[in-house]
Specification:
globular, alpha/beta, four-stranded mixed sheet, three-stranded mixed sheet, 8 helices
Length: 304
């Protein structure tokens, strides 16, 4: 199940160097679709923009690149770019984005702007569902790790979407059932660090899925429910040996540093008011089939 370790050495993640983001020109809390949102607690626009630009600068300073698309005025959550679509480079070298099919109608207009933006930049695009018809998929539930695309399903992504992804992309998809209402996307409970380590919050998942994820990750850094929900620490991104985090409990920092990672804190607290943090704001589009994920002709879905 686990990816082999080359020569006995830990292998850094090769993906997570190229990101798509959305400039927060119209970010606000206009409705409630997760437990963090409160229309009476609005983000400060100037502070949010400064934090967003600080995140961009941190990514670029640590070797990543960022391309930004404009935010629709009628799409206040579009700034959480991770959920625009699942980006990867197919085995034949073609960049591809499977556009998200949002569970809530309040976010579905986002892809109507994101799809032509991606297409104009050479990405092939496809859908597993759209406009309320077909399977729901939100890309914040999907991560390359080990021998598979690991996909959370339940609150936002539907189980049916796993089969679509596996078949269309020619990949193994490992499904994990999310049951915690506050960790409605997998990116709030799981953060790959390298080829054998990850931040994992088992409380987000049902018992069988939690056991499967802990088996998949050779050296998990297990987060408590409180750590995950109050610090958003799993909602981080990794560039080589640098982890950009919104906050980091002391014991988590100690373990990361023992493993040789540098922890860099980036304040994105205004975006926590909408229920997302660093990972939600950043969409990696450089996961490469044949390098980061094995090709599986015809696809395969594995459930606990």
């Amino acid at each position: 199940m686990r990816k082999a370790v080359e020569g006995g050495q830990v292998v850094e993640l090769q993906w997570g160097r190229r990101y798509v983001m959305v400039e927060p020109t119209h970010f606000r809390v206009e409705y409630v679709i997760n437990p963090f949102m409160d229309p009476d607690d609005q983000p400060d626009p100037a502070r949010a923009m400064a934090q967003w630009r600080g995140l961009v600068a941190a990514i670029e300073r640590h070797g990543g690149t960022v391309e930004a698309l404009p935010q629709r005025e009628d799409a206040p959550d579009m700034v959480y770019a991770m959920n625009l679509g699942l980006g990867l480079v197919r085995e034949e070298g073609v960049p591809h984005v499977v556009m998200s099919h949002m569970r809530y109608d309040e976010r579905r207009m986002e892809t109507r702007s994101a799809q032509p933006w991606f297409a104009a930049r050479g990405f092939a695009t496809s859908y597993v569902g759209r406009d309320g018809v077909g399977a729901h998929l939100e890309a914040g539930d999907a991560f390359a790790f080990g021998d598979a695309l690991v996909v959370g399903y339940g609150p936002r992504t539907e189980e049916l979407a796993l089969k679509h992804l596996a078949t269309e992309l020619g990949l193994r998809v490992r499904g994990l059932r999310i049951t915690h209402p506050g960790m409605y996307h997998l990116d709030l409970a799981f953060c790959p660090l390298d080829d054998r380590r990850a931040l994992v919050c088992p409380a987000a998942l049902d018992e069988e899925s939690a056991a499967a994820l802990l088996e998949l990750v050779a050296e998990p850094l297990v987060l408590t429910e409180e750590e995950a929900l109050t610090t958003f620490c799993a909602n981080s991104i990794v560039l080589g040996r640098t982890v950009l985090m919104p906050a980091c409990p002391d014991r988590v920092r100690a373990q990361l540093e023992e493993w040789g990672f540098e922890v860099v804190l980036v304040d994105v607290s205004e975006f926590h008011k909408g229920g997302g943090s660093i990972r939600c704001l950043t969409n990696p589009v450089d996961v490469t089939v044949g390098r980061d994920l094995p090709a599986v002709p015809g696809g395969e879905v594995v459930l606990p």
